[in-house]
């Protein structure tokens, strides 16, 4: 006799409150349900129900047993869905969000590649630098950069994100090269979305407020100003890597480079991801890894 025998019947009776209703739910006869529950009580040597002519109610032992049985049922269904979805075709509507510049440059092209492979998928992407609430907005997925704040979400690391302090050779010829964090105060710093730049000194993170005569909340605009020799910039690797390789920009204070942050895929907490989200996350992780490897090669 299987240890599972009678569990589904027991849960159905407990949730329906009647043997007749439980029989209708499971498509069995009332006598079959009653027999399975009685055999289960005999195996457990415990009474699970108080029975009356109209309804049944759980004993204390039955209430405890019901909680465990419901979790077992949930786990069994989860396992069956997971196996069924391994080869599941991504389809239906997928709604996601990402920061504007990073999304346009990296994420959207990879998502478009994914769409070409899965024509049954429908897609809505909102590119915004405002962090949207996935639960309130009904979003399936968000791509976030840097450090994470929302603990209600599950995060998968897609790629590293390294910040670089750098400047054009023209600027350094005119104003010299900083050799310590304290010297940044006398340099013109090109400020993006924040005037708080992050560094690492003696193994600890340090935030430093910088000043300059130029500011814009666009990474591409900051990069253009830096390449023209207007001042120092601190930007992620995906903006400056090729320019560091070519010599158009020079890395500065590399020993104080801040600890790596990351590019993250975030989605609402749930034990089982739909094929469309799971496979897209895997596609993005693979694509970003390949791009990183290519950017580290010869220019």
Describe the structure.
The protein is an alpha/beta fold and 299 residues long. The protein folds into 3 domains: 7-85, Orthogonal Bundle (Arc Repressor Mutant, subunit A), CATH 1.10.10; 92-161 and 261-295, D-Maltodextrin-Binding Protein, domain 2, CATH 3.40.190; 163-256, 3-Layer(aba) Sandwich (D-Maltodextrin-Binding Protein, domain 2), CATH 3.40.190.10. Helix content is 43%, strand content 23%. It has helices at 7-16, 19-26, 30-44, 60-85, 100-117, 134-137, 169-175, 219-227, 237-246, 275-295; strands at 49-51, 56-58, 92-98, 121-127, 141-146, 153-161, 163-167, 190-191, 196-201, 204-209, 214-215, 233-236, 250-251, 261-268. Strand 1 and strand 2 form a beta hairpin. Helix 1 crosses helix 2 and helix 1 (7-16) crosses helix 4. The N and C termini lie far apart (68 Å).
Q: What is the topological layout?
A:
Blueprint: H1 7-16, H2 19-26, H3 30-44, E1 49-51, E2 56-58, H4 60-85, E3 92-98, H5 100-117, E4 121-127, H6 134-137, E5 141-146, E6 153-161, E7 163-167, H7 169-175, E8 190-191, E9 196-201, E10 204-209, E11 214-215, H8 219-227, E12 233-236, H9 237-246, E13 250-251, E14 261-268, H10 275-295
Parallel strand pairs: 3-4, 3-5, 8-11
Antiparallel strand pairs: 1-2, 5-14, 6-14, 7-12, 7-13, 9-10
């Amino acid at each position: 006799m299987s240890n599972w025998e009678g569990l589904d019947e027991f849960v159905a009776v407990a949730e329906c409150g009647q043997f007749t209703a439980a029989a209708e739910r499971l498509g069995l006869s009332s006598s079959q349900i009653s027999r399975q529950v009685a055999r289960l009580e005999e195996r457990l040597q415990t009474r699970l129900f108080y029975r009356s002519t109209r309804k049944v109610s759980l004993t204390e032992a039955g209430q405890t047993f019901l909680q465990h049985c419901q979790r077992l049922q949930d786990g069994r269904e989860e396992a069956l869905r997971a196996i069924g979805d391994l080869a599941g075709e991504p389809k239906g509507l997928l709604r996601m969000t990402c920061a504007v510049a990073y999304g346009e440059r990296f994420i959207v092209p990879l998502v478009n590649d994914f769409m070409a492979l899965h024509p049954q998928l429908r897609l809505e992407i909102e590119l915004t630098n405002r962090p949207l609430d996935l639960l309130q907005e009904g979003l399936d997925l968000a791509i976030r950069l840097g450090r994470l704040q929302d603990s209600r979400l599950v995060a998968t690391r897609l790629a590293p994100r390294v910040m670089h302090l750098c400047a054009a050779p023209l600027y350094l010829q005119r104003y010299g090269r900083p050799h310590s964090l304290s010297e940044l105060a006398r340099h013109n710093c090109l400020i993006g979305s924040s005037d708080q730049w992050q560094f690492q000194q003696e193994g600890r993170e340090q935030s430093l407020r910088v000043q300059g005569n130029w500011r814009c909340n666009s990474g591409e605009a900051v990069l253009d100003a830096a390449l023209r020799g207007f001042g120092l910039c601190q930007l992620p690797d995906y903006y400056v890597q090729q320019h560091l390789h070519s010599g158009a920009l020079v890395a500065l204070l590399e020993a104080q480079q801040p600890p790596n942050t990351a590019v993250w895929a975030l989605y609402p907490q749930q034990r089982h991801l739909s094929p469309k989200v799971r496979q897209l996350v895997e596609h993005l992780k693979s694509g970003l890894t390949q791009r990183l490897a290519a950017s580290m090669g010869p220019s």
